[in-house]
Design a protein that fits this description.
Length: about 230
């Protein structure tokens, strides 16, 4: 797909998401929201990061697309997924979280390690699906750093009930937004934290995503977004 054609499709995607946001009162700051804020039960979310803008230097740039409950047996709702990314506000380690329950937190953490060091957590970060308390205590400062970074982001949620449609919108939107091995449209800023990620897919796509970033972009995803919005 030519760069100009992809740019036009991206303009259309952003316009559709602006309509979604307008119906919800605008993009929501992730760090200042709770489960009582009227989230759709199921949907696809789009995250915007401070300092990351589109090529015009003004409009915010999407940095991550995600969804949830893509299997028939999953009971997780949209807010549960967003809360796992954001981290906790209270409890034993307020402001912390668990990167072992959020691959997004994992990538942000590895980027902070590469940029800032964090030797107390570097050896154990991303190792295993669980960890004893003493390891988690060593990681808590980095977990708080991850939470602080993600909390600054804003989110737009597209309500999507059908899990197959959620999967298709997530996959198609990432493919359209990704700059992996193609002429860049809306590239990340020189200071974007994702440039320090240990995953090539993050660095080269300009997204906090790994899956689907190498797929060929297809305009059909916009038709599906319109269909869902009008359903």
């Amino acid at each position: 797909m030519k760069r100009a054609d992809r740019g036009q499709l991206l303009d259309e995607l952003y316009e559709l998401l602006n309509d979604v946001a307008a119906q919800a009162g605008g993009p929501r700051p992730l760090g200042a929201t709770t489960g009582r804020d009227g989230w759709p039960t199921h949907g696809v979310y789009f995250l915007f990061e401070p300092g990351e803008v589109r090529e015009d230097g003004l409009r915010p740039r999407i940095v991550r697309v995600g969804t949830h409950a893509l299997t028939a047996t999953s009971k997780a709702d949209l807010w549960t997924r967003l809360r796992a990314h954001r981290g906790g506000l209270a409890g034993r380690n307020p402001g912390g979280g668990s990167h072992r329950g959020s691959v997004f937190r994992l990538h942000v953490g590895t980027s902070l390690i590469a940029r800032d060091g964090h030797p107390e957590a570097a050896a154990s970060w991303g190792r295993g699906s669980s960890a004893p308390r003493e390891v988690r205590d060593q990681e808590v400062d980095l977990e708080r750093g991850v939470s602080g970074h993600i909390a600054q982001m804003q989110v737009i949620c597209l309500p999507v009930t059908d899990r197959h449609q959620r999967a298709e919108i997530e996959r198609g939107s990432i493919a359209l937004l990704s700059n992996y091995d193609r002429d860049p449209v809306d590239p990340p800023s020189s200071r974007w934290l994702g440039r320090y990620a240990d995953r090539e897919a993050v660095r080269r796509s300009g997204l906090w995503n790994v899956d689907h970033v190498t797929l060929a972009p297809k305009p059909e995803v916009l038709s599906l977004v319109r269909f869902v919005m009008n359903s």
